[in-house]
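Problem 12. The chain below contains 421 residues. Write out its predicted structure in token notation.
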Amino acid sequence: MSLLLNSLIVSDPSSSFYNSKVNLLIGSNGIIEKISKKKINKKGIRSIDFNSKKVSNGWFDFSANFCDPGFEFKEDLVSGVKLAYRSGFVDVLLKPNTNPIIQNKNDISYIIKKSQNKFCKIHPCAAVTKDFNGKNLNDIIDISNAGAIAFTDYNESNNAELILNTLLYLKQFNGLYLSKPKYYPISRGNVNESLNSDKAGLKGIPYISETIAIKRDLSILEYTGGKIHFSGISTKESVDLIRQAKKKGLNVTCDVPVYNLILDDSNILNFDTNYKVDPPLRSNEDINELLSGIDDGTIDVITSNHEPQDFDSKNCEFDKASFGIISIQTFYSNILELSRKIPFEKLLPTFTSNPRKILGLENNKIEEGSFASLTIFDAEGSWDYNEETNISKSLNSPWLNWSLKGKVKGVVVGKNFNFDE
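Solution.
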């Protein structure tokens, strides 16, 4: 059956209908058949009126952990997928740090099969080395052929020779290496190293723990060629390093978790473990430079960095608590808060077209003849985030029990749709 979506304002700057109120007719084949500012008359279709809500091409989360296999009590592929599309995401890139680690064809097959659904495509990332040991390379080409879309050793990437060999290996098929910029010997803290960490009496993580890793990896990239994506930068120095690398013509991209653009390290002073995240919350000076990096295109992607944790992992002393928060469901509300400083239309590509470009995936535009991949949202909508409305299996969010602005209304993927009516 065809689907008619009436009264939508196109937010996609790449569309020729940008900022126009239109009606969209999607055929039974999932292709956008017609876009018109006038009424579309067609019998035998389902018609929905959205009363001037906004629509963009479907959202993409470039960094999330659905904890499956091994930690399904925190999240699993079924709950994670539902959480994603109910929050506006039609694509998600998953981290491989599960138990067992995602590192062979069977692991990739498990992720793809268990996450099958109509509304959100899961893209598995795989480990570069066996069990993240930093020594023994996995069969990268074999895993890539099975469906792995990128490769990383996540937090364990401190072997320069391994990184060099990985980049050379990935160049054979234009593969992407994800670097988590963290130099472990000086990263074993709890929060950002600052006056606030001193006040709280918590071991700090200095900014150089991030920049040492970035400088090393950029030097290797300049030598080998290939491409690197830095996942989870958080300091002003990191922004400058990547900005200079791009000016030199290196094939480098990066992302920042959305909460690192909103929350600063003063939040840790109340010892709420929901503010213990990785990368750590940094200073307002860092936040301002991260925002400048988004504004000038240095930072390519904003992620949720969704990291569920169970009750016991957070309900303990701060230094013993696990890192991470759940952040997919609150992503759009966070983005709206950011849009006070950077226009929403400039933020939008960081979670729509840019992730797809980095991964070499097709970016469907809101144009006639394009495959329908849409997210519909209401900038004026509000909702209460609490245990009843929470979709994740976990509850580790600093925004729990807040009233938030910005509500996702639904997604369309081909002929399939899921709406909050």
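Discussion. The mean pLDDT is 96. Students who got a different answer should revisit the alignment rule from Section 12.3.
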